[in-house]
Specification:
Elements lengths: L7 E6 L7 H8 L5 E4 L8 E5 L2 E5 L12 E4 L4 E2 L1 H13 L8 E4 L3 E2 L2 H13 L13 H10 L6 H6 L3 H20 L7 H15 L3 E2 L1 H10 L4 E4 L25 H6 L6 E9 L2 E3 L12 H10 L11 E3 L1 E2 H11 L3 E5 L9 E10 L2 E3 L6 H6 L1 E8 L16 H14 L3 E5 L7 E4 L17 E2 L1
Parallel strand pairs: 1-10, 1-11, 2-5, 2-10, 5-7, 6-8, 7-9, 11-15, 14-16, 15-19, 20-21
Antiparallel strand pairs: 3-4, 12-13, 16-17, 16-18, 19-20
The chain binds guanosine-5'-diphosphate (GDP), 6-O-phosphoryl inosine monophosphate and magnesium ion.
């Protein structure tokens, strides 16, 4: 049994995704033996910039970029095997050989072509107000099949189910009929090619499939350190996010028990990632959204276009109400506050400190999407900074106004900022020494500058 201090760590998003989780995971990876994805699927797009090279990871844990790290796809991930194989091949072509270090849970579910078709058709058929703006990666339909059980396909089935191909063909046929009946269109479902996809998944991924739950437990028992990489963001959580404009999984540390089969009580450090402003892709309420020149300026400076779909991200001021809520849900111990460099050049920067709704002041987000849509943000403005931050590596070298801004966010959210992002590159990060209480920062190597 694991005893004593538990160094296992979770990196998760405090917003609606794209907070910079990939960058933080990549930075911390050298201090861990295993990196684990436990929720979502190819809807995720985690970017890592190393020197002149940029990598965008969708299904593979960001840890695969580090030779010594075992990358694990846990039971709670919905895996499109064709997308995964494509991602592995693309990395191999760039000199990153993933297969020997990748473990896929035998309990994880497969996303097949009919899930993606259903996702697209449902979105096309929805009216403007109820359209979620999904990534069309088949995430919702696959999780629905998982809950329905009889129509689900898991990785263990690839190895052990006699007659799986016939069952998949039957599911695909009946899905086509159901989609035709609902949407008048189901023709793009190609049963033969879906069965071929299953065969390819079996052939290419067979050696990677294993009992990852046991692997994690044994690793922890043996003193191994585990980094959990959440996908999406807390505000997209199926239970706690801005429902129904959410994704279909548990997107924070609470998802580790469900999605990795690992006790959340063994995770000692929960690093919540947030940008110095807010972004959202897809539909749904966004209290601090700026549909004006300022929003456009943030989008341009921050290069705010989706990693998975290329869609422009909606931009707005930092929302401390949403961030504090997300942090509390996740038991956040440390904040990683990124993109401070993007806010350089603004005369003043805004932070939302409350919502106003029908004459009342709200300090936590309401459950109803229509109420949240109608709230008015109370914005506090602070003096901005004009200095270029991208070359700064010491916290104390940041401009006073930037430090004041960080202090204000720490106070409002109630959690210390332990990592500061001043650019997209791996090295453009300020890691504060207090993280050493939980993470062995010496393992990060000399390229990572640790400051007070
Ligand atoms: P994720 O899904 O949470 O991993 O985030 P994405 O990779 O989708 O989006 C974050 C974007 O911000 C990526 O393009 C990163 O390269 C970039 N990024 C991360 N941190 C910083 C930062 O501190 N400054 C700037 N300018 N870009 C950053
Ligand atoms: P990462 O891991 C940003 C959003 C979609 C849509 C909603 C539901 O890169 O932060 P889905 O395809 O999951 O059914 O879409 O959730 N969404 C994300 N937005 N980053 C993500 O992942 C997202 N994953 C899902 O835009 O609004
Ligand atoms: Mg992303």
């Amino acid at each position: 049994m694991t005893t004593g201090r538990r160094p296992h760590t979770c990196v998760f998003g405090l917003g609606w995704g794209d907070e910079g989780k990939g960058k933080v995971v990549d930075l911390l990876c050298p201090a861990f033996d295993l990196v684990v994805r436990f929720n979502g699927g190819a809807n995720a797009g985690h970017t890592v910039c190393v020197g002149d090279e940029t990598f965008a990871l969708h299904l593979l844990p960001t840890g695969v970029l580090h030779d010594d790290v075992i990358a694990v796809i846990g039971p709670g991930v919905v895996v499109d095997p064709i997308a995964l194989i494509g991602e592995m091949d693309a990395l191999a072509a760039r000199g990153v050989e993933v297969a020997p270090r990748l473990r896929i849970s035998d309990r994880a579910h497969l996303v097949l072509q009919y899930h993606k078709v259903e996702d697209q058709l449902a979105e096309q058929a929805a009216d403007r107000d109820s359209r979620i703006g999904t990534t069309a990666r088949g995430i919702g339909p696959c999780y629905a099949d998982k809950m329905r059980r009889s129509t689900a396909v898991r990785f263990t089935d690839l190895l052990h189910e006699v007659g799986l191909d016939d069952r998949v063909a039957a599911i695909a046929e009946s899905r086509r009929a159901a989609l035709c009946a609902t949407y008048g269109d189901g023709g793009v479902i190609d049963v033969e090619s879906i069965v071929k996809d299953v065969a390819l998944a079996r052939e290419r991924l067979r050696d990677n499939i294993c009992d990852t739950t046991r692997l994690l437990h044994e690793s922890a028992d043996g003193g191994g350190t585990i980094l959990f990489e959440a996908a999406n963001g807390m505000l997209l959580d199926i239970d706690h996010g801005t429902y129904p404009f959410v994704t279909s999984s548990s997107t924070g540390p609470h998802g580790i028990g469900v999605g990795a089969g690992f006790p959340p009580t063994w995770v000692g450090c929960a690093i919540g990632v947030a940008k110095a402003y807010s972004t959202r892709v897809g539909s749904g309420p966004f209290a601090t959204e700026l549909c004006d020149d300022i929003g456009d300026r943030i989008r341009k400076r921050g290069k705010e276009f989706g990693t998975t779909t290329g869609r422009p991200r909606r931009c707005g001021w930092f929302d401390s109400i949403a961030c504090r809520y997300a942090g509390r849900l996740g038991g956040v111990t440390d904040l990683a506050l990124l993109h401070l460099d993007t806010l350089s050049g603004f005369e003043e920067v805004g932070v939302c400190v409350a919502y106003r709704y029908e004459g009342e002041t709200l300090t936590t987000p309401p459950a109803s999407a229509s109420v949240l849509e109608a709230v008015e943000p109370v914005i506090e403005f602070m003096p901005g900074w004009c200095e270029d931050l991208q070359g700064i590596r010491n916290f104390d070298d940041l401009p006073q106004n930037t430090r004041n801004y960080i202090d204000r966010i720490e106070t409002l959210v109630g959690v210390p900022v332990s990592i500061v992002g001043v650019g997209p590159e791996r090295s453009q990060t300020i890691v504060r020494g207090r993280l050493a209480d939980m993470i062995d920062l010496k393992r990060l190597g000399p390229a990572t500058h640790v400051t007070q």
